[in-house]
């Protein structure tokens, strides 16, 4: 029996890591915005300053309390690099960060494939915790509470996973997903 071209190869790679940290120092956001060109600050709309870093390509929200949320990195090394560049930017306005910031992963987004075509109508009927409205969006949303993960599933087998906090959790969630799919397909 010939296998479908799309069958068998499951894969998932991290596309975004969202982290938070605290620099334990008050940050003068107005001065940052006035001095650094890669920032946006509009306190009437949002209390944080946005800083965009070219390499690694990341963005961060910086709050006057010193709290930082960084997004866009694909590896933890790139996260570290981004936080170091933020600290260097602060040095330009004479803010010296004396601590090594403790980084907490808030969310990891990964995308890939389960290696098989998916009948989303069947999955919507047979799996719990799904949302599927093809008129609104072509993917099925599947919450997998046991893995603390949420998946977007597409009929061609492509998937997006969110909600995990480590690479191990991403891989465990993928394995659990494939196990669930095999039970109902």
How would you explain this protein's 3D organization?
A 10-stranded antiparallel sheet has the order 2-3-4-5-1-6-10-9-8-7, with helices on one face. The protein contains 4 helices and 10 strands. It has helices at 29-35, 76-91, 120-126, 167-184, and strands at residues 11-22, 39-41, 49-53, 58-62, 67-73, 104-113, 130-131, 140-144, 149-153, 158-164. 26% of the residues lie in helices and 33% in strands. With 185 residues, the protein is of the alpha+beta class. Strand 3 and strand 4 (58-62) form a beta hairpin. The radius of gyration is 20 Å and the shape is elongated. The chain folds into 2 domains: 19-105, TATA-Binding Protein (2-Layer Sandwich), CATH 3.30.310; 114-184, TATA-Binding Protein (2-Layer Sandwich), CATH 3.30.310.
């Amino acid at each position: 029996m010939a296998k479908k071209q799309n069958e068998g190869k499951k894969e998932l790679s991290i596309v975004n890591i969202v982290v938070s940290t605290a620099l334990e120092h008050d940050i003068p956001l107005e001065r940052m915005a006035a001095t650094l060109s890669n920032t946006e600050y509009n306190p009437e709309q949002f209390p944080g300053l946005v800083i965009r870093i070219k390499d690694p390509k990341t963005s961060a929200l910086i709050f006057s309390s010193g709290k930082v949320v960084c997004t866009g990195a694909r590896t933890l090394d790139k996260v570290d690099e981004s936080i170091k560049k933020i600290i260097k930017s602060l040095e330009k306005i004479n803010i010296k960060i004396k601590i090594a910031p403790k980084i907490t992963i808030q969310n990891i987004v990964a995308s890939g494939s389960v290696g098989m075509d998916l009948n989303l109508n069947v999955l919507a009927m047979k799996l719990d915790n799904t949302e599927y409205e093809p008129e609104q969006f072509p993917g099925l949303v599947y919450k997998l509470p046991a893995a603390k993960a949420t998946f977007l599933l597409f009929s061609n087998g492509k998937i997006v996973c969110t909600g995990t906090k480590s690479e191990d959790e991403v891989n465990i969630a993928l394995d659990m997903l494939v196990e669930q799919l095999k039970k109902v397909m």
